[in-house]
Copper transport protein
Amino acid sequence: METHMTFFWGKTAELLFAGWPCQSFFSYAVALIFVFLLAFTVEWLSHTKLTTSATGNVAAGLVQTILYSIRVGLAFIVMLAVMSYNVGVLLAAVAGYSIGFLVYGSRVFGPSKIDPNLNLGSPDLPPLNC
């Protein structure tokens, strides 16, 4: 497999594992869907509230730490996939992050959960910073 050092378009990308996806268009489409879902999941974890006010500080802190670790790990996996320099993978990652933000972080489906002026309770994790 040829390693690309510039962005390219095509189904011959190799993501995360040697030989994956194989040379078929179907496996490439599955890889793009996988990257999209990973990015979408990172946004969901960034804007979700899984702890309650009744949860003790230690338990809530452990849950937040576990969620943070999962979120950072998934974000690094998306980053490594984008480092394949395949334009389709880049677009899938950006689309996953964007649609995840649209659903969970924007005001389209209700008040924004990250608006500091609203008293809706903050999500468990702070937003990802670029």
User: Anything to note?
Assistant: The two ends are 32 Å apart (CA to CA).
